[in-house]
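For consistency, the fold was encoded as tokens, as this record shows:
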Amino acid sequence: MQQPIYPEQYQSNTKAKTKAIPSNNQSNNQSKVKAKTKVQTKVQTKVQTKVQTKVQTKVQTKVQTKVQTKVQTKVQTKVQTKVQTKDG
């Protein structure tokens, strides 16, 4: 699988060496100039993508059935018999 390369993702090491030796123009003087230039470029781009998906589904079903049946039967029977006998 080939991914597209973006300029930020290049990782390059560039080294440049320069040597300069001038020619002998004056009498017999030998002068040697050695110049060494070292350029090191390191571009490192790290792209880290962390996708965290947490799906939590909690289904709580509470069925509470309370059947309360109160049957109250009150039978009150009051029989009052008053018998009054008056002799006279």
